[in-house]
Amino acid sequence: MNKALSLIFLFIALGFFIPSCTYDKAEELIKTPLPPDTISFNKSVKRIIELRCYVGQNSDNCCHESSNLCDRDFTTFQGFNIYSGDKIKSAINQTSGSTPMPFNNPKIPQAEIDTIEAWINQGRLNN
Q1: Residue 124 in contact with residue 115, Cβ under 8 Å?
Q2: Which terminus of the chain has fewer Cβ atoms in its 10 Å neighbourhood, N or C?
Q3: φ and ψ at residue 2, rounded to 5 degrees
Q4: Interval 79-97: pLDDT, tens
């Protein structure tokens, strides 16, 4: 009877331990984050500029719209891409020592700043 009871206990114990034993490779356990979606200048950045940098502004202010009064049309890739990524980041974050953009207006929402910074970090593609 002791032998039968010992065998039952052994099978129960093995039933708990065997399923918990697995063989995992370390590289399979580490999840690599998916690359962020590519930010489009034409679909994302340009929309932010149109919304925040000139729509509804006094035409005397120009604020980067396409007009004869303005020296820079930031709604085009060529117009916006003349400045370095660092200068754009400083301006939209309204960093001390930079010209804050939008000029004389509150800082744009953080989600829009993140979008522009992601586009810059992805290589400022003309897409």
Answers
A1: no
A2: N
A3: -60, -40
A4: 888 889 999 999 999 999 9
Which stretches of 35-84 are assigned E, i.e. beta strand? none
Q: Tokens 């200068």 belong to which residue?
A: 87
**Which tens digit of pLDDT belongs to each residue from 6-50?**
767 666 765 555 555 555 555 555 554 445 588 989 989 988 888
In the three-class reduction of DSSP (H, G, I as helix; E, B as strand; rest coil), residue 30 is classed as coil
Q: Please, where are the H alpha helices in 18-82?
A: 26-29, 46-52, 77-80
Q: Among 58, 55, 79, which Cα is nearest to 69's?
A: 58
Q: Which among 67, 36, 40 is positioned nearest to 125, based on CA atoms?
A: 40
> Burial, 47: exposed, middle or buried (Cβ in 10 Å; 0-12, 13-18, 19+)?
middle
pTM of the model: 0.62
